[in-house]
Amino acid sequence: MFLRLIADNFTRRPRRKFLTAAALSLGMAVATAALSVSLDVGDRLSEEFKSLGANLVVTPEADSLPLEIGGVDFRPANSGAYLPESDLPKIKSVFWHNNITAFAPILEVQVKTAILPKPVNSAFVPSNPATLIGTWFQHPVYTDDLTRFVTGIGGTNPWWKVEGRWFSETAKDPECVIGANFAKKTGRGVDSAIEVQDGERGRVLTVTGILSTGGPEDDAIIVPLKIAQELADKPGQYRKLYVSALTKPEDDFARRDPKIMKPDELERWSCSPYVSSIAYSIKQVLPGSDVRVIRRVADGEGKILTRVRTLLWLVTFASLLAAALAVGASSASSVIERRSEIGLMKALGAGSGTVGWLLAAEQLLLAFVGGCTGYALGLLLARFLGTKIFGVPPEPSLLVLGVILVLAATITLLGSALPLRRAARFDPAPILRGE
């Protein structure tokens, strides 16, 4: 009988039921879109920020020790320590190894150059001093479990554009890429030859591409790391390492010093993909290194994500408040209209709890219908927003559906609480007398 009463009352007054369900559907649609985009926005922003390049830089720890007297740095300009290239596969053994998408070592050498062709037996005549940068491009790295990972400067500096092609590290004849400004000054292009020399060590390089970065690399010569190591007489060593990692935007907890954390706090911090915790884990596997965060990338991601999520939560709160007010107004009108019906039920022996539960069950049925409809509409809105903002729509989530149904039920009960409480306290005698 209880279910028959609910079904009968649900089909009565369809206009009022429709308006209540519509208000709930609109509120839940906005909440669904906001939740879907909010859950997806972190990953999307991480993908977008990958275009800004590496967010970590590794240098020798000795370089971070200042040598200053009276505020003047007395270290020679070409001084500095080096790190072993053989330790680099250890980066893919850290806890967050799957978040590390690319890394590339850097070794700079100041060289003298001569433009070829020229007679093979002629003396070396330097024409332009230049910076030679040794690095990786599509370089295979093998971890301890023999997993092959291909990485290089293309992953850490994705905005570098090459006209032609990148050098091949396995080419029989040494190859290089030259910066756009260097090519313009020397008049060299693809397939030309350049001789570089550092002291008594020299190599003849074939140009395979022209590099444009908008930075100092436009005046440099980019070669495989091994060639730079040979010219600098630093076999198996590098000076700087750029690392690109997918991270979680930092909050106040992430910026705390791990040295003063309690064991449980340190575990929580280490198990979160903060850029600082990834930097800490890399430092543990690279002895003698100093790992620093490139703040222009990490801070920018955190600020934008915080603002986007704040805006989404404000819009969601406003929509839920409007839905609760609409449900409350509709519920109050329904209780007034059904005053005689409620009085008759109480006169026939229905208790206040039974009457309240009957009315609440009707509202919960409305919440289910409105929540499901709002979820469907919200998915369409989320797809539209995701496509317009990030170019990729967010994926549907059963978790969001569950949250929306709970929200719809909560908003309905909160909005109907006062009218239902009033209905449960009706005195049947005055109502049946028409008072």
Key terms:
alpha+beta; 6-stranded mixed barrel; two-stranded antiparallel sheet; 48% helix; elongated
Termini Cα gap: 29 Å
DSSP strand count: 16
* Mean pLDDT figure: 78
Strand sequence of the main sheet, in spatial order? 5-6-13-10-12-11
Which series of helices and strands comes N to C?
HHEEEEEEEEHEEHEEEHEEHHEHHHHH
Oligomer: single chain
Low-confidence stretches: 67-78, 118-125
> Biggest β-sheet, characterized?
6 strands, mixed, barrel
Strand content: 15-25%
Structural class: alpha+beta
Describe the structure.
Mean pLDDT is 78; it is low at 67-78 and 118-125. The chain is elongated, with a radius of gyration of 34 Å. The strands form four sheets. It has a six-stranded mixed β-barrel with strand order 5-6-13-10-12-11. Strands 2-3 form a two-stranded antiparallel sheet. β2 and β3 form a beta hairpin. The chain contains twelve helices and 16 strands. The chain has 435 residues and is of the alpha+beta class.
